[in-house]
Amino acid sequence: MAYSEKSSAFKEELIIKDRLSLKDKLNNFLLFVWHPERKEIFGRDGLSWAKLGLFYACFYMAIAGIFCTMLAIFMAIIDKREPTYYNDFSVMWQQKVDTTYVGVNPGLGFRPQKDSTTTLIRVKSSEKNTSHPYSYMHYVRMMDEFLSTYLINDKRGEQIINCDFNSDPEYLEKQFKLNKVCRFEIVEMFGPENMCTQTRNYEYDKSKPCVLLKMNKIYNWRPEAYGPNDKLPAELMPYESLVRANPRNVFILCFGENQVDMDFIGPVTYFSRTPDGQGKYPIGFIPFYYFPYKNQDGYRSPLVFAYFSNITTNVLVNIMCKAYAKNIYRNNLYRIGAVHFEIIID
């Protein structure tokens, strides 16, 4: 409704009295929104609003400037490669399970994994059509996608160095600090008997799935070897001669989580970077010379393939894989130092 001096519906002054009618309240509100005599909007004229807008513009620009300055200082002083707190100074160092201080402890991951919320690998080995939800081709593509960076030829030249068990650990650590990484080539590491290859569809079409295992990356963490007088975990005792002969490795083992699962899992063969270069062994190896991780560009986590050559079909098999070194704590309940997944082969 327009306002004018001749308007009889609304007065141009605020109405003040003990009890206001609805019409009086509406009149007062409209005068607050726009006062025609004073040329005011919400109680302020144009100049007042301009001053207020200028003040808040300068105020928020100053706050934004302070924030950007502090952020620039923070980004200038923080190390882009080395975290401020790690190892003994990390919050992880105080990690406690029951009454045991775990400290900084690596875990294991596995592939293929459809998403981070599921641990089930369900495969229909006879189904190639990807329209089927359990087609083995889904898992083959997931493996191909994950391994794509490992299959690309390195073009980083001097950034890649050749490492082996004769390499001096102190020399390697100095090289790692210079952003260099140890060479890790899948083609070279698994040997001619490797069943877990792209050309063989990782054996998913033959009801003999390959599952890829890797250790989580923890900055500056170093595995410790079992000494000649150290007692080995019970799971490693069947392989004691291998472990004693090759102490500078993290060892990987998979087995059925329960007794029933152990009956169904069948034999497990591992393809990994072995000391003799053969690749195929009844236990997985991750050499110490890939540690410590220093957040290098192009770092490739060492991998182990677990090959389930005779797993029982049409049965859900619960599988637990564990990493073994003197300073790796393992706990089945909390999946510490281990990873759990299930396999169903239809």
Properties at a glance:
single chain, 346 residues, alpha+beta, five-stranded antiparallel beta sheet, five-stranded mixed beta sheet, 7 helices, 19% strand
| Structure classification | alpha+beta
Distance between the termini: 76 Å
* Count of discrete alpha- or pi-helical segments spanning 4 or more residues: 7
Output the helix-strand order. Answer: HEEHEEEEHEHEHEHEHEEEEEE
The coarse silhouette is elongated
Structure, explained:
The structure is a single chain. With 346 residues, the protein is α+β, with helices and mostly antiparallel strands. Helices cover 25% and strands 19% of the residues. It contains seven helices and 16 strands. It has helices at 22-33, 46-77, 136-151, 169-177, 186-189, 240-245, 259-265; strands spanning 34-35, 40-41, 96-97, 100-101, 108-111, 120-123, 160-161, 181-182, 210-215, 249-256, 268-271, 280-281, 284-287, 303-308, 317-324, 338-345. The protein has a five-stranded antiparallel sheet. It is elongated. Mean pLDDT is 86; it is low at 1-11.
Set out the fold topology:
Blueprint: H1 22-33, E1 34-35, E2 40-41, H2 46-77, E3 96-97, E4 100-101, E5 108-111, E6 120-123, H3 136-151, E7 160-161, H4 169-177, E8 181-182, H5 186-189, E9 210-215, H6 240-245, E10 249-256, H7 259-265, E11 268-271, E12 280-281, E13 284-287, E14 303-308, E15 317-324, E16 338-345
Parallel strand pairs: 6-16, 7-8
Antiparallel strand pairs: 1-2, 3-4, 5-9, 9-14, 10-13, 10-15, 11-12, 11-14, 15-16
Brief write-up:
By secondary structure, the chain is an alpha+beta fold. The chain has helices at residues 22-33, 46-77, 136-151, 169-177, 186-189, 240-245, 259-265, and strands spanning 34-35, 40-41, 96-97, 100-101, 108-111, 120-123, 160-161, 181-182, 210-215, 249-256, 268-271, 280-281, 284-287, 303-308, 317-324, 338-345.
